[in-house]
Amino acid sequence: MKIGIFTDSYLPYTSGVVRSIETCNAELRSMGHETLIFAPGYKNYSQEEEGVFRFPSVPAPTNRDFALAIPFSPRFKPLIEQWRPDIIHVHSPFLLGRLGARQARRLKVPLVFTFHTLYDQYVHYFPFARSLAREATRQLCRAFCNRCDLVIVPTSIIARYLQDMGIRTRIKVIPTGIKLEEYAGGEKSWLRHKLQLPPGEKILLFVGRLGKEKNIDFLLASFAHLVQEFEAARLVLVGGGPEEENLRKRARHLGIAGKVTFMGPLPKKEVINCYAGADVFVFSSKTETQGLVLAEAKAAGLPVVAVKAFGTAEMVDDGRDGFLTPEDSNAFTAKIKELLTSDQLRQQMSEEARKNARLLSSRHTAQMLMEEYQGLLAKRNHPSPCRP
Fold first, then answer.
1. Mean pLDDT score of the chain
2. Considering the domain 2-177+361-381 in this protein, what is its CATH number?
3. pTM of the shown model
4. Residues 6+ apart with CB under 8 A from 170
5. Interval 245-260 mean pLDDT
6. Residue range 178-182: average pLDDT?
7. To 5 degrees, how large is the angle CA 267–CA 273–CA 277?
8. Is the dihedral of CA 371, 372, 375, 380 positive or negative?
9. Fewer CB within 10 Å, N- or C-terminus of the chain?
10. How many helices and strands (H and E) does the chain possess?
11. % of the chain exceeding 90 in pLDDT
12. 180-360, which class in CATH?
């Protein structure tokens, strides 16, 4: 099968969406399918890539690391007409996602859309008229989803969210998968050695983009509360983003700068080592459709303490492989302290986390996706007869 994949973000940019596309693409190719990814180009990134078509782009005004594709290229139309995909799968309702949707209509092939992001929860990046921007974003997403043949979501909570928003297209829950074996093989001593930490110090880990939507202010405030009672703790933040400098200032203001380490973006192998070397994974985002980093943490055997919201609520089995709490610093830090002070509880939750992560195997989720592709093609090739 030939699958055309259209995305507004891809390597070298790092995000959950990019990791999701990269992992699924590798699985589809290993299963014998042919894929072609249509993505923005990035300045000073010239790595040779098989099966990737790059569009010219400009830096996003609110995030200079993110490239906005210019969806025009004289090479594009001849290529896609010659290649003739069987399915077009888009990963955004904007720019290249809309280009993919137009091509699906023109070539008369099924259109699949994975709803990765709660776009209306990101209007804080708009400099003004945020309530209008939120409503306009919801209308755009609703219209786009209803033009598709199938919408993929990672959790049932997001499926209900879209249905309540007025999405009539069929919605299928397929979690974002990960390569379990990669996250099970991290080097446990790497992080502690890198930071030169004493043996008794406990490590709380966050992995993700340093943006307002990740609610890291709450994480810092909660950590400041925790260290008043549990001094032998360190918070490690892995990732970069537009809020990094503000978060550094916030840590200094809270008097915890010496206990918080900003690692910046890391290569995948080193991120896996961070999971392996930490004691508890902490997560405060309230805008996740799934939270891929939660799956990664669980695959590494890392218990999770997270704010209960949207897709996060389905990724943590509360009381078994981690804890879900309200957005309340006292409740959040109480659960962290409970894990840090009980090696037995931490070990029990670690084992449960690894077991539950098996449901998120990238091969399993790719097979689920392939079944949906095949169903759409069968329906397109053999439409049901009209009723009299």
1. 92
2. 3.40.50.2000
3. 0.84
4. 149, 150, 151
5. 98
6. 93
7. 145
8. negative
9. C
10. 15, 15
11. 80
12. alpha beta
